[in-house]
Amino acid sequence: AQSVAQPEDQVNVAEGNPLTVKCTYSVSGNPYLFWYVQYPNRGLQFLLKYITGDNLVKGSYGFEAEFNKSQTSFHLKKPSALVSDSALYFCAVRDMSSGGGADGLTFGKGTHLIIQP
Amino acid sequence: ETGVTQTPRHLVMGMTNKKSLKCEQHLGHNAMYWYKQSAKKPLELMFVYNFKEQTENNSVPSRFSPECPNSSHLFLHLHTLQPEDSALYLCASSRTSGGNTGELFFGEGSRLTVL
Questions:
Q1: In this predicted model, what pLDDT tens digit does every residue of A3-16 receive, in sequence order?
Q2: If I label A85, which of A42, A114, A116, B23 is the partner at 20 to 30 A Cα–Cα?
């Protein structure tokens, strides 16, 4: 079975400061990893994904994430936070050994990111 | 505009009502999903359809009844729901072949309130 842990319910960062939202995962094989963002009363929007290759993945809105296999982590980062980054962020995983089937993603419980002006 | 459209966006129903949620995707995907989002809980995968065939049912109560008439449309029929079923119901779609990496594309959700 696969699982995702987001240890922080909420992260508070001052505007202009760097931000990190933490995620650790567990899969039996190699992982596909994803970050999604959800604004109030909206669906989930894809931010970025790690499939293979470079451990540092760049995505939308200046976000990036670093895959660390030894620590089974995939933390989301941004060098300089904006107030408009305030939202709910979800980490998700899929076991690469699942192949081409349709089996969905396993999500964490989400982390509220609050950027203070 | 999202490639996955959900209607209605908001629904209030009594415990004895029957209603349906609708999802339509315009992305040419073959797989469609229903997720339930409750406050402070991980997203719960409810149902998966691949080429119109249900491939996963995560022990969802029978008061939720999915229907997938084709790869572009997905319904969730609701009857005799309980107040704890109040949540945001999210529809998603994905590819299932050709280098599929499992990325899901979500609709805006249907906010359900059961009185």
A1: 999 999 999 999 99
A2: B23
Tokens of B101: 């990496």
Among partner residues A9, A98, A105, which is closest to B104 by beta-carbon distance?
A105
Q: Which residues, 6+ apart, have CB-to-CB distance to B86 below 8 Å?
A: B112, B113, B114
Task: Tell me what pLDDT residue B58 has.
Answer: 81
Count Cβ neighbours within 10 Å for each residue of A34-69 and write b for 16 or more, e otherwise. Answer: bbbbbeeebbbbbbbbbbeeeeebebeeebbbbbee
- Reported confidence tier of residue A104, pLDDT bands at 50, 70, 90: confident
Name the residue facing B103 among A46, A108, A110 (closest C-beta): A46
Query: Which of A43, A103, A109 has its CB closest to that of B48?
Result: A103
pLDDT below 70 — which residues of chain B? 1-2, 97-100
What residues in A contact B34, CB-CB < 8 Å? Answer: none
Q: In the numeric block, which tokens belong to residue A110?
A: 């989400």
Residues in chain B with CB shorter than 8 Å from the CB of A101 are 50, 55, 96
> Which chain B residues are Cβ-neighbours of A108 within 8 angstroms?
42
> Within the 40-59 window of chain B, which residues sit less than 8 Å (CB to CB) from chain A?
40-43, 45, 48-50, 55-56
